[in-house]
């Protein structure tokens, strides 16, 4: 086999479909986010409209100071896996903070949210005897991979469809161990799961619940504990999983659960045991971010206002976007080539960076521009975004409202 030919041909197919991914080479500026320099385009100044640093915490003075101080105090890396010399005081403190955030007995840190889902779900589903995993159809790739890796039997329930979930649960012996895996805010459509009703089913059918709150932690609930906190449901969820890389602006992932469950995953999860711990400075930065958002609602309030404003302005000019109860604004394009073209023109002509979201991140035919306003977007940024979209929609003769709801 000619390996290089194979790689190149496969990539050509991807390009032909419009699904080839091109990275933007950005340099963010602390204190000026969402502004960044596009190093790949003559150092052009751009405004980022698709970041998951939802609140601008990546540049928060408390976070930066904690990282600087810790770096100066203890050096760069953790120097080992958690098991072999890599557990530092910063990790221990962060886990205590996260357990408190979710009102759980314990929390366990991982190097990313992806790894936390992969390792925790993979371990639980593999180790619990005869475990059946019930997985929402739109679960994130990291959950899917973890479940697959476990080799446990799995059943996919139609997205947010309680009747279908119940049907699958009811078909099993009550005594069989079951794990219901789902998300709170689904990141691409921005819809929110009926958590209370899922917990009711879990109670009725003797199932454990595993909730990915990656797109909700920091953003919802009086202390940023997520949708489950907002709805008073944290104690009904067995495992809450979150990231420190999105609203918290740093990196890392975690689960919060009972002491026994966290200790179990700590003791058996390959993806926890055999990898170097996060740098202490990173843990300290994340901790500062979590602590800040526990006591401050200003960022959450401003975030909500900015999201509402962008939605209203899109409505004013008839740009179709999915109506949802979260902070994510998906502007539907429905074609990968057009989606990429729109994104390219926004960048080239308007200095606006919105990455096209194509397959496999979303199903084919539902390609979109996913807009994520933040408290640090100015009124002028919003004006520029709206006028650019208005120009583009006219130029490309794209459909205006009414649009079929997705
Ligand atoms: C981004 C994401 C993850 C992974 O979190 P990282 O910290 O980025 O690895 C997990 N679940 C969902 C739903 C996500 O969108």
From TrEMBL:
It catalyses: succinyl-CoA + glycine + H(+) = 5-aminolevulinate + CO2 + CoA. It comes from the Bacteria. Its EC number is 2.3.1.37. The keyword Acyltransferase applies. Residues 45-389 form the Aminotransferase class I/classII large domain. GO terms for biological process: protoporphyrinogen IX biosynthetic process. Its cofactor is pyridoxal 5'-phosphate. Pathway: Porphyrin-containing compound metabolism; protoporphyrin-IX biosynthesis; 5-aminolevulinate from glycine: step 1/1. GO terms for molecular function: 5-aminolevulinate synthase activity; pyridoxal phosphate binding. Keywords: Acyltransferase, Heme biosynthesis, Pyridoxal phosphate, Transferase. Pfam families: Aminotran_1_2 (PF00155). Belongs to the class-II pyridoxal-phosphate-dependent aminotransferase family. Homodimer. This is 5-aminolevulinate synthase.
């Amino acid at each position: 086999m000619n390996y290089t030919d194979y790689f190149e041909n496969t990539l050509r197919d991807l390009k032909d479909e419009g699904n080839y991914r091109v990275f933007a080479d950005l340099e963010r500026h602390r204190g000026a986010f969402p502004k960044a320099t596009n190093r790949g385009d003559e150092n052009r100044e751009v405004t980022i409209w698709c970041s998951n640093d939802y609140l601008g915490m990546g540049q928060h003075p408390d976070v930066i100071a904690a990282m600087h101080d810790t770096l100066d105090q203890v050096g760069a890396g953790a120097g080992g896996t958690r098991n072999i010399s890599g557990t530092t005081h910063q990790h221990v403190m962060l886990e205590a903070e996260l357990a408190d955030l979710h009102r759980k007995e314990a929390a366990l840190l991982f190097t990313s949210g992806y790894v936390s889902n992969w390792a925790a779900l993979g371990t639980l589903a593999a180790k619990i005897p005869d475990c059946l995993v019930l997985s929402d159809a739109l679960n994130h790739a990291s959950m899917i991979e973890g479940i697959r890796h476990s080799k446990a039997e799995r059943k996919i329930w139609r997205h947010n469809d309680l009747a279908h979930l119940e049907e699958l649960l009811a078909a099993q012996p009550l005594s069989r161990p079951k794990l219901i895996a789902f998300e709170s805010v689904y990141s691409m459509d921005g819809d929110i799961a009926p958590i209370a009703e899922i917990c009711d089913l879990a109670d009725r059918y003797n199932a454990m619940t595993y909730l990915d709150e990656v797109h909700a932690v920091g953003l919802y609930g009086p202390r940023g504990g997520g949708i489950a906190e907002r709805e008073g449901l944290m104690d009904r969820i067995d495992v809450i999983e979150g990231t420190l890389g999105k609203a918290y602006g740093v990196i890392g992932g975690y689960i919060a659960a009972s002491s026994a469950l966290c200790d179990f995953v700590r003791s058996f999860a390959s993806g926890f045991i055999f990898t170097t711990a996060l740098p202490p400075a990173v843990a300290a930065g994340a901790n500062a971010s979590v602590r800040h958002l526990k006591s401050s609602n200003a960022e959450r309030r401003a975030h909500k206002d900015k999201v509402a404003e962008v939605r209203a302005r899109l409505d004013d000019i008839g740009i179709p976007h999915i109506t949802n109860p979260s902070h994510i604004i998906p502007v539907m394009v429905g074609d990968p080539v057009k989606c990429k073209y729109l994104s390219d023109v926004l960048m080239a002509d308007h200095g606006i960076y919105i990455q096209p979201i194509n397959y496999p991140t979303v199903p084919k035919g539902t390609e979109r521009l996913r807009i994520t306003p933040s408290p640090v977007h100015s009124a002028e940024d919003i004006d520029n975004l709206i006028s650019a979209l208005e120009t583009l929609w006219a130029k490309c003769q794209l459909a205006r409202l009414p649009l079929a709801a997705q």
